Fold each of these.
Amino acid sequence: MSDDPLRDALLGAGVPVPAVPTIGADTEGPCRHGHAHGHAAADPFATFKPPMPTRSARRAATPARLLRENAHDEIYEKIYVAILEHRLHPGTKLVEERLAEIFGVSRARVREVLARLAHEQIVELIPQRGAYVAKPTIEQALDIFEARRLIEPAVLRRLIETLTPEKLARLRQHQDLELDARRRDDKRAVIRLSGEFHSLAAELAGNSALARNMRELSVLTCLIILLYDAPTAISCRADEHSQIIEAIARRDTARAERLMLEHLDHIESSLKLDATTEDVDLEAIFR
Ligand SMILES: [Zn+2]
């Protein structure tokens, strides 16, 4: 554990950090397991390919321009995963200079990544003050759940229409990882993998616009869970994902959609999204 919380959050507390940033153990896992992080933007099918060669092997044969783009994606991905895993909290200041130091890149490069995260609403850019991990309000949180209720049944319909044994195998593989993380009681992995289940379904459904939206919505949901977690909150219940997968396997669209809507209700109702907790009437308190 170093005395630099931002570095710990991004690179993993207690994990020895190499001088040259490489894909760390914590980000390599999710990529290899095929969800939709950074590279997906460049190659939406990257996740369906067999395991990639190691980064050093790829680096040797990669032109400088591609190297720069990979570095960009890698930084994006590290910040994204740190948010998904609740290592970076809502409202955390992302100091450009520090990030440039941590990742060994220029501030201009960091600015590009922050702009992309801001475009996805994951980071908030405040003029004269800098970049902060987004802190969705209760109203935004309710909007996000409303959007998910509209998008996710459509995702499942399309996924079932286009279902192949390979797609089903990908879902089951992901579910195994999630169950394994629960058995190990690895809370960070559980949060990340359960969010990624939804992005994976959207990605497998094959509509890139839906997949992009779902990715943003699931990372925002992670921030919301962190902000508005009730003591008894659950993010995603593993058995509910399993039931959804079984409905998909049976091509039972109506059941899959119904289970998904119930699932979203369960997540939302486990949170304290009661407006009164945010709009405190100061006048009433101090008068
Ligand atoms: Zn879920």
Amino acid sequence: MDIETTGLDLNNSAIIEVAALLVDGNTIKQKFSSFVRYDEALPETIKRITGITEKMLAGGDPLDKVIANLQNFIGSRPVVAHNGFSFDFPILERDGLKLNGKEKYDSMEFAFFVLPTSVAGHSTEALAQYFSMEEVAHRALNDCKTTFEILRRLRSEYGKKPKNNREALNHMAGYVGWWWAQFLTGDSVQIDRISDLIPAHQAYRKTNVDQGMLGLGSKKIDLDEIKRYFFVPEPQDGSIPSDYREKRPEQEKMALYVGAAFNEQRHAVIEAGTGIGKSKAYLVPSLLFALSNGIPVIISTHTKVLQDQLFNKEIPHLKETVNADLVATLLKGKKNYVCLDKFDKFGDDLTQILDRSLYEFGKAGVQYTSRLAYLLLASWVLETERGDWDEIPYWFKSKIPKSVEQRICNVDELCGPDICHLYDKKQCFLAKARLRAKDSDLVIVNNALTLSGIVVKEEAADTVESVTLEDDVPAAGQAQKFDHTVFPGEAKYIVFDEAHHLEEDATSAWEAVISQAGFELLMEQLFENGRLKSIVNGIVGAKKSANVKFQADSFFNQKKDLDLAVYSLFKKILPELVAINGPRGYSTHSMIDEIPPSQTKEDFFSMLRDLRHRLAGVADSLKIFDPLASHEKDQKIISVYCRNVGRVIDSFDIFLSGDQGYARYLERSGDTVEIKAEPISVAQILDERVYGNFKSVILTSATIAVENKFNFFARRCGTVLENKTKFKYYLLHSSFNYIEQVNFFVPKGINYKENKDGHLEKCAAFLEKAIIASQGGALILCSSYDQVENLSKRLEAPLSKNNIWLISQIKNSSVTTLIRDFKNDMNSVLIGTQSLWQGIDVPGQSLRSLYIYKIPYPARFRPIIMKRCEVIDKKGGDSFAEYYEPLAALALKQGFGRLIRKRTDKGIAVLLDENLLNKPRLLRSFPDGVDPQREDEETICAALSELKVDKV
Ligand code: SF4
């Protein structure tokens, strides 16, 4: 069955058409189709997508009659709808269809099972495209037929899976009692473990290269060769988009700068204004350099979104245009990978679960139970190459219990060669990713992993995660103080994209955090996890010594006292030192130096010292067992645990030392309080660990310079500390013609500073008129979820009346889905915060106006911001001019950059705060040609009405 509605909102959308097919095997026996009478104006988007008009609906039956007819048509049979669990079923049940007692099934679930790694997704459109089916108008009956045909093709597609995988899946599907199992073909064979069917890593082409002979980047690339790749003729099949092929002088310049920096083994800071196409500009020279030297070049990003985009979009273009054989690896932190060992155990545990239900229907929609989640995930595990949890589509993840992810994704420390048999067999996804990185030309990674993985050399050698083991290449020339726990040893050339986040990322990577959750994990690893226990018990059994037995007992007996101390610290003492959260659940902070002296504060420090002392005792007693263990593997495991305890002790030491280089504070979120110390300046650490450790570091972003100068970035990120010849700075202006492409307005009378309380109402009133004038196509950027919610409440009804769909970002919503919906509906409005200031790329008319709610100054209450300002002021500086305002300037430039994404784009930007005009530093930070005009509402709305998109 399928329905057409007036929108996608489950509560407010009305059904306008219903259809169903009665099928038997491969035959359609009967059809049902009916319009539902609807007397209001239809949204333009719906008319455009479906071709349904008000006139058609005027002749439809009343809703209750259609539902009754459909009920008769279904009778007592099971029903199937595509995406039915999330859309069709709840809407039909809302309007009176009785499905509760009947079997209802979602063909999207079956599609995931058959094609779990489909990049395009599992919607009807994506599947129809996958099977090269003819496109038909979106009408309910058409969609029923399409779904039926998709199901037939999915069944035959299933037959193409490897025989062993199919047989194992058939058995599991039958075992858990899955309704769709009846459509699966082939034998059914029980297997012991999923991991038995997972292929081992196959080395890529570099296997036979003698790594010791590699020049580690000594072979220069021909810069003239780079130029060849910046005009690519149109291929026959149109597979390379025109914006990737067109000649852009600034892009070519940037590529040459990157190539020269690699050749000369020096660093570069490059601001590449919007439209230059900086990804290609650094990827091409990186790839050429990697190929000519036989070493991987690292590309590091702030967001996983950009990481995925580079891997899924840019790399295929590079293959088309530069080298078809290039090898690229997407490398993520451990917790992103499904752990095969855990997945095997998950399967074992299912035999203990007696409850055979597969679905739980609740207010929030359907949830798969663990049994079903295991089956569907097993299909994915058997097919995925990377085992990356982010590959799994959001719609699917939202249906499985959160506990499943925690259960099978890797947060365990015990991974690595000689410790886990699946790592040694090269079947584990984490191992495969890291081995593949060694064989790669380009390794795409995020800053969190890049920065936190840089450790002093001795520590890396002791790190079980490391793949830089036996065949590691010693760095040529200089003695290296640092190494990387994850990157291949020869990876000494790195590009940081989104470099405007470098200070923030480095702060997070090198902060010290003491949390109850961290302690609980450590306690579990030390005292409850069977591995350490069995090693220690094994030693006791083998040594048969009273002293060893005594040592083992004393070790395990420490748990009780530690538990008590941890409970008392986190549940009794800390909550007294930091205020409860604000009314909207904002986290609250207490700077430790500002908490007045009290008995509780004294108790806090004395408890910290006591816990630190106890942890040192734990580490000492663990070390006793190290030489007693007879297997190297056991010694390695003990040393991993010792290191983990050592890391927690380090965090205590940073906090207890009172080091003024850190912002030391307590942070409360709900009932949880954490103890934190963040480095106030990361300049020195970046200089030592990054600029001094890599041969060439490229730092790039569209927003690095403030007022066209690099001073702010150089100071904050420490590039100024390097020898002047080591860093070069390049400013490449945007390739857009902003004078022609943008009108920038500041509405008269809207001033945040002068009227903070009334700002919301004024903005809402203005936005309503402005958005209706342009008929949507607007992005509204706010600075907090509060602003998003308050504005949304005021705008939703009036916009909806005008057929404009307001898409609001709520916490934890999928940005990808929000952007996709916004792109697809020319008349929609997207309102959001933080992640939308930079993570959104919508060229064309879907985004034709941009509204910024206020000047995006950073939140003053954040301890690290306060401390940084304080330090600058104490040294006689002006924190507002030197730190606070430059941050706002960069954020503003980022947000503004969302509007124009192509040379053919035209749009209007509006900043809802006329105070901007009094801020020369901010004004000078916009690209050339951007000149905000203070205008009245009518003039702005008249300009916006010119942007209306022609209705279809
Ligand atoms: S090495 Fe780690 S992630 Fe890989 S299978 Fe073993 S425990 Fe799991």
